[in-house]
Amino acid sequence: MSSKIPALKSIRSELSKDWNGIWDNSALAIGLYATDASVYSEDPLAVAIPKDIDAFKEVVRVALKHKTPIIPRGAGTSLAGQVVGNGLVVDSSKYLKKVIEINAKEKYAWVEPGVVRDELNFELDKHGLYFGPETSTTNRCTIGGMIGNNSCGSRSIVYGSVRNHLLELKFIGADGKEHHIGRGIKPDPFVENLCNKLKGFLDDQTLAEIKAVYPKSNISRRNHGYALDCVLQENGELDLCKLFAGSEGTLGVITQAKINLSPLPGKHQALLCLMCSSVDFALKTNISALNYNPTASELIDDNIIRCTENQIGQQENRFFIKGNPGAILVVEFCEEEENILEQKLNGLTKEVVHLGLIADHSIVQGDDMNRVWNLRKAGLGLLSNIPGDAKPVAVVEDTAVDPIDLPAYIQEFNVALQKRNLSAVHYAHAGSGELHLRPVLDLKSDAGRKAFFDIAMDVALLVKKYRGALSGEHGDGRLRGYFIKTMYGERIYKLFQDVKRLWDPEHLFNPGKIVETPHPIENLRFSVHYHKPELNTGFHFRQFKSLQGAVELCNGSGDCVKSEIIAGTLCPSYQATKDEKDSTRGRANILRRTLAKGNPDLNNPELKKALEYCISCKACKRECPSNVDMAKIKAEVSYQNSKNSFKLAQWAISRGYGVLLKARALRAPASLLFPLLRGPLQISSKRSAPNFSFEAIPFIPSKSGIWIYVDEFTAVESPKLVIELQKITQFLKLDVGILPPFESARSAISMGDLKHAKKLIHNNINLLKKYEVNELIGIEPSAYLGLKEEWLDLCGDNHLKLCQELAGKIKGYDSFLLEHFSDHGTPKFNDLESKKPIQIHEHCHHKALVGKPQVQEILKILGYQEVETLDSGCCGMAGFFGYQKKNYQISKAIANNKLLPKIKQDSVLIAAGTSCRHQIKDLKNRKALHPITFIHRTLGL
Ligand SMILES: Cc1cc2nc3c(=O)[nH]c(=O)nc-3n(C[C@H](O)[C@H](O)[C@H](O)COP(=O)(O)OP(=O)(O)OC[C@H]3O[C@@H](n4cnc5c(N)ncnc54)[C@H](O)[C@@H]3O)c2cc1C
Ligand code: SF4
Ligand code: SF4
Fold it and tell me: How far apart are CA 248 and CA 145, in angstroms?
């Protein structure tokens, strides 16, 4: 590595003065870009993030001149270590996102490499067109990365892989110049030389050997080695695009791609979900399904089905599961004619019932189809959600065989695992003979690493026996290049080396991939240098055993690096800055590296930078398929650091509302004091003061055991809500009491003041013991949801059972009211509070931990017609975070990303979060009403 440092300096200094990009070789950048979604990790030399295509070309050219290895990178979601290596990482995902041309008539588009596949399809939809190849990562993966990996997905039965849709390419070759390739494009001398030499390699004997050792011709998914089997066309010419697709950045750097577009899929669509007793039955069902020309046939096994039971984001997607299936085959049909769709659904169902292959089935249509696909796609991430060091590992996760061979192959595969006392999860693309099989291995142990290699070799030999593909879609990367000799023999491997040398004589384009790959257990994330630190943590980490266990849930899948254009909230800070350091993945990567040092300095500058903009919104807890809970992790890190350096501001913020709550009379002086607190607490001058209110909150006893829980934020800023809520419950003729206010511990948790949080929780539980509690109704989401979340991991073992009982009894005012309004057959209100359209912004914690739009449902019951719950992401205020001077800009950027542009001029705006209402007031100059106030007014109470 050290010999490359002078080269790096030369590259940096040779880049033109006005080079438009970011050059970063800080420890933070190195840590962020050392890994992808694979099990590999190796420090790059530096990271370049060009801001336009000229800057991209320039940095590649200069790096080549200085003989520095280049690792082209898109979203970094590769599963085999394709973007891991000791070179200059050139990231195209942040700025190179231009759709250069869409030609709807001739059905093609020219795009830059950083364009995200789903974002492109949003554009194409306007033209009735579609880029067919897909991956489970389509909402963040880039076209450059898709070409690099020759990606394909669930619908590959119809659309094939990227190779089938790549028409032309512009790329920087080893000479540092841009070249244009594609069928019918006149080759320049550089390209002509490549073609002539390549033709020389592909003599009849070699072509015959390729035909004999490559996967069977009907296995369309094949991503192992170079695609020399399809580069030669019938007219004797070479189609270099076919070779470039799947070459993993080893032949050159793509600057533009011309891709083929397809018409939108048939408008009559349905999923036939077939409940089978076992994987074997499902794979036999798959053979029947393929006779009906489906657009996809996908397997979900019982491990995944079980994992979704406890994943908050997936529970609502389980609606189509019937009984207790051992496996589900999801078969998709898209037809132009409705009656053809009916015939196929009925025909296949009858056939598989007759063959005794299924126990039950369900048919899913419309928007619900996305929910089924969400569950299927989340499979991989969900599997990481297993406590402990052993995790399902990507090692043999991507083999493809002829679908007819699949049942027999899988049986042998499982026997091979059993021999080594292993088992695997089975899911994905049964229709094209590919299952993602992940054995559970502990890569932190020598035995686990040995098993990793042994099972990879066993499976390579098994796939060879079936003449399958060792990789169907995920590619070779650092993982599978080693096995090319085993699969194709020495001569073909040597041919690959010749191809690489021809295109890249100095081995500068993504070296160590496909050829000259290091041994597969080199540079694993969890290597022999990995340590487990002994930390006395504030949280118990009851589920994942340690802080490290909670951090290592992140497998790098990259669901948290999708842009604001894509639905959902994850991750608001990344969406605002598009910096890897501000994504959940970036944070987890820096933390994992820090903790693995054994005696970690959790106050290191890299970690501080990575965590600074995490607003503890908990979107990751819901939307990350592994449920990484960065809010909790950040609180723990702050706690660990506060043990060594006590900060007055942290203390004041953690306890401020508690003080105000106890000494309610203090609120008037606090309002007056607020301007004086701006300096010491570093509050932005652009922030208005909170509205402290003095309305008294009575204690009202309850015989029914149903109580309103009055948290500190509601009591100090909006006590009126308590009274209004109680009146609404009276209207519903319910006996609901009001408890004396108590502090939820939210501020203490956010500030990492975990000792104090524990004390509060302990006292709260003791207080609640004094009352007969059957139901608790919460108002402020961040406060009452803490009882379902952090309290359970902060309370002592002696209180755990009680705390779990309380967690089962607490619900939001919205869930509570929705139950009772619908129960009572509430009449519609003619005299509505407003005739304007209503827009609801839900609090982040509500989105993350509850999810359902209950306020919208209540308002519809009350008679409002135009009610919309916004896909508004996070408001960016996040308690005290948005008040702080240093966070004002990012707080504003987050709000501007999703929430503020969605607010209509003439709407009634409703928001349950105290912070959300404050943010809307400060940045939009609009008053958002609390749902309770709005309902209260509607009822005319
Ligand atoms: C949960 C999960 C599910 C997945 N499911 C699928 C699936 O269904 N199907 C599938 O095919 N893959 C799948 N993948 C793998 C991966 O997401 C895809 O291959 C994806 O297309 C990679 O895109 P990316 O932008 O992340 O590329 P990266 O990972 O950044 O790069 C991929 C390759 O392309 C090269 N590359 C990137 N840009 C350029 C460029 N400008 N010039 C030359 N080379 C370049 C890189 O060097 C690398 O070799 C999955 C991954 C995960 C984590
Ligand atoms: S935090 Fe979650 S979504 Fe993000 S990369 Fe890690 S596992 Fe994937
Ligand atoms: S808590 Fe929110 S801001 Fe922090 S990492 Fe998770 S999604 Fe991102």
Answer: 8
**Residue 810 beta carbon below 6 angstroms from any ligand 1 atom:** no
pLDDT along the chain (941 residues), means of 10: 73 95 97 97 97 98 97 97 98 98 98 98 96 94 98 92 97 98 96 97 96 93 94 93 98 98 93 97 97 96 85 85 96 96 97 97 96 82 75 91 96 94 88 91 93 96 97 96 96 98 98 97 89 93 92 94 93 97 98 93 97 97 92 97 82 89 78 85 93 90 97 95 97 96 96 96 96 97 96 96 96 96 68 82 95 92 92 94 96 97 95 96 96 93 86
Tell me the pairing of strands 775-778 and 706-708.
Answer: parallel
Nearest CA to ligand 3 atom 3: 614
Task: Supply 755's token pair.
Answer: 């000792």
Rounded to 5°, angle at Cα 682 from 681 and 685: 120
The ligand minimizing its distance to the Cα of 37 is 1
In angstroms, what is the span from residue 614 Cα to ligand 3's centroid? 5
Residue 424: predicted pLDDT: 85
Domains annotated for the chain, with CATH where assigned, are 268-383 (3.30.70.2190), 547-644 (no CATH), 657-818 (no CATH), 828-938 (3.40.50)
The residue type found at 665 is A
The predicted pLDDT at position 822 comes to: 78
Amino acid at 190: F
State the closest ligand 3 atom to the C-alpha of 628, by its place in the atom list counted from 1: 6
State which H helix or E strand residue 620 sits in. Answer: helix 619-623
Name every residue whose Cβ is closer than 8 Å to that of residue 490 and which is 6 or more positions away in sequence.
none
Residue nearest atom 4 of ligand 3, based on CA coordinates? 614
- Given this model, what pLDDT does residue 826 score? 65
Q: Which residues contact 99 (CB under 8 A, 6 or more apart)?
A: 109, 110, 111, 112, 115, 120, 123
Q: Which ligand is nearest to the CA of 114?
A: 1
92: Cβ below 6 Å to ligand 1?
yes
DSSP one-letter string for 769-801? HTS--SEEEE-SHHHHHHHHTHHHHHS-HHHHH
Q: Which residues line ligand 3 (CB under 6 A)?
A: 570-573, 584, 587, 614-620, 630-631
Whether 473 lines ligand 1, by a CB cut-off of 6 Å, is: yes
Q: What Cα–Cα distance (Å) separates residue 392 from each residue in 301, 379, 535?
A: 14, 11, 26
Closest ligand 3 atom to the C-alpha of 619?
7
Round to whole Å and give the CA distance between 779 and 912: 8
CB 125 within 8 A of CB 445: no
CB of 85 within 6 A of ligand 1: the answer is: no
Q: How far is the CA of 238 from the centre of ligand 1 (A)?
A: 25
Residue listed under structure tokens 């041994």: 519
The pLDDT value recorded for residue 308 is 84
pLDDT of residue 824: 63
- The pLDDT of residue 663: 82
CA dihedral over 552, 553, 559, 564, signed as positive or negative? negative
Residue identifier of the C-alpha nearest atom 6 of ligand 3: 620
From 98, 131, 134, 141, give the residue whose CB has the most ligand 1 atoms within 8 Å, as the site to mutate: 141
Query: Which amino acid does the sequence have at 258?
Result: K
Ligand 1 pocket member 144 (CB < 6 A): yes
Task: For residue 623, give the H/E element and its range.
Answer: helix 619-623
H-type alpha helices, 745-887: 746-750, 754-769, 781-788, 790-794, 797-809, 813-823, 844-849, 854-861
CA nearest neighbour of 845 among 778, 936, 934, 935: 778
> Looking at residue 578, what is its pLDDT?
96
User: What are φ and ψ of residue 664, in 5° steps?
Assistant: -60, -25
